[in-house]
Amino acid sequence: MLLYEFGSIAVSRAGHDKGEVFVILKSDTEYVYLMDGINRTFEKPKRKNIKHVQCVHYADENLAEKYANREKISNDDIKRAIKLYKNRKT
Question: What confidence tens digit (pLDDT) does each residue in 39-53 have?
Fold first, then answer.
């Protein structure tokens, strides 16, 4: 089973946002809560069925470190993590 944990990058596989990249905020047995820092912020994440998301096994170390140290995470940090993933991918 894949681990959907905070800070991991995920790509939407279904819906109107198909192909978009998100950062996982949290997950439960059936849903993941996604954010992109622009439309879906830290304060208002998108709830999506786990079957419609593909985890890409990449996490931003800076974001994970802030979370571990219980520092405030801003939407700019989320946008930065997604940008770093996209730049790394191409």
Answer: 999 999 999 999 999
For the purposes of burial, counting CB atoms within 10 Å of the CB of 41, is it exposed (0-12), middle (13-18) or buried (19 or more)?
Answer: middle
Return left, alpha or beta for 70; rule: phi > 0 is left, psi -120 to 50 is alpha, else beta: left
Question: How is residue 38 written in tokens?
Answer: 């622009």
DSSP class of residue 51 equals G
Mean pLDDT of all residues belonging to the chain? 90
Which residue blocks in the chain are alpha helix, DSSP H?
61-68, 75-89
β-strand pairing of 31-35 with 21-27: antiparallel
For 69-76, the CB contacts below 8 A with 24+ separation are 73/42, 74/42, 75/35, 75/37, 75/38, 75/41, 75/42, 76/37
Radius of gyration of the CA atoms of the chain, in A: 12
